[in-house]
Write a structure and sequence with these properties.
Blueprint: H1 4-16, H2 20-25, E1 27-34, E2 45-47, H3 49-58, E3 64-76, E4 82-93, E5 99-111, E6 114-122
Parallel strand pairs: 1-6
Antiparallel strand pairs: 1-2, 3-4, 4-5, 5-6
Protein name: Ketosteroid isomerase-like protein
Pfam families: SnoaL_2 (PF12680)
Keywords: Isomerase
Length: about 130
Amino acid sequence: MRTPAEVLDLRRQYLIARDYESFAELFAEDGVIELPFAVDGLPARLEGREAIRDFSLKTSDRPIEILDLQTVQLHQTADPEVVVLELVTKGRHTTTNQPFEAPCIQVFRIRNGQIKHFRDYVAAGKIPGLT
């Protein structure tokens, strides 16, 4: 079974490669993504692996390319399923070639090697084309 760190490393690889099918498979069937600071029509909550897959595939045509998800710090919690990730998303707007860096805090519940819950507190205002 994968550790939370291994799951997050795979997530990084899949998002950089724009492999949204594999990204969705990291989630439990009843997995949830929450985006408390959602902007530009992004949903505040996605429930279930299929909803996550559908949304991820639909947004793959956005002019945003993720170049790296740079971990600043991975914090273990008293609950072995919960980790807190300090992260900087580095990317570029593909139409303008404008680079960006968006800091965020992400909270994960990873059970049995699958993401059960993912809450993303991203500074979306730092991502061109999302504000």
